[in-house]
Amino acid sequence: MRSILIIEDDRRIAQNISRSLRVLGYSTEVAYDGFTGRGLGLTGQYELIILDINLPDINGYEICRNLRAEHTTLPIIMLTAMGEIEDKVEGLECGADDYIVKPFDLRELSARVATCFRRSDLLVSSTGEEVLQLADLTLNTTSKIVQRQNTLIELTAKEFALLEYLMRNQGRVVSKIDLAEKVWNFNFDPGTNVVEVYINYLRKKIDREFTVKLIHTRPGLGYTLKAN
After folding, report:
1. Cis peptide preceding 103, ω within 30 of 0
2. Which SMART domains does the record cross-reference, listed alphabetically (predicted)?
């Protein structure tokens, strides 16, 4: 039975979530304040955390950072009334795997929980496969499977190589020269636009249909992959 910790100060919401997940066969525990929730989460005995942001004693963003620092693959779903894009971006940057805005449907939450568990199983696969992850984007270097929000993304060999290099260097600005040398194995020709063309291909496949954009251009410097 998979164990889930719910950190939510609204007792009605917390109990509704707990009952709904228990019906589906999960084991649940509820913490009604941030300090208790953080302490329980840091024990490592739970397989998924559902976390509110507006808690009375400690901000959910801080809890998420603390949990992510200790447990790098622990699935964390933020559940909050804060629905602005800036709030979602901050939540993902803190390490959350998913972000649901209140009011919400319990069926959607259950589906998101199942998705997080599937993604988590992939990341800790006993086969030793290497999986790179940024926010809700995963890239399996062994099976060559790329997914975003559990949606399969079909890439060509060169698109895959480009995305893999960006994911291995996520958060760092990568120049066109660097990409040309590492992905295409040739000296960069200022007259060619091959890098821009393939960056656009990737954007159409991994960013266009999603709210949070991951590929960012730094004019005159290059490109960076991050969740804002």
Report:
1. yes
2. REC (SM00448), Trans_reg_C (SM00862)
Identify the three-state secondary structure at position 4: strand
Outline where DSSP puts E strands in the chain: 3-7, 27-31, 48-51, 76-80, 98-101, 131-134, 137-140, 146-148, 151-152, 215-218, 222-225
Q: What angle do CA 119, 216, 79 make, to 5 degrees?
A: 40
66's tokens: 């603390």
On whether the CB atoms of residues 173 and 218 are closer than 8 A, the answer is: yes
Q: Which residues pair with 152 in a beta bridge?
A: 147
Q: Distance between CA 218 and CA 131 in Å, rounded?
A: 26
What letter would DSSP give residue 70?
H
Cα 8-10-16 angle, rounded to 5 deg:
85
143-174 tens-digit pLDDT: 889 998 878 999 998 899 999 999 888 888 99
Contacts for 184-189 with beta carbons within 8 Å, 24 or more apart? 184/158
Residue 203: the pLDDT is 95
| Lookup result for tokens 């660097």 | 178
Whether the per-residue pLDDT at 204 is higher than 70: the answer is: yes
Domains of the chain: residue spans and CATH:
3-123 (3.40.50.2300), 131-225 (1.10.10.10)
Q: 13, 4, 227: which is closest to 102 by C-alpha?
A: 13
**Polymer length in residues for the chain:** 228
Separation between Cα atoms, residue 111 and residue 103, nearest integer Å: 16
Phi and psi angles of residue 97, each rounded to the nearest 5 degrees, phi first: -90, -25
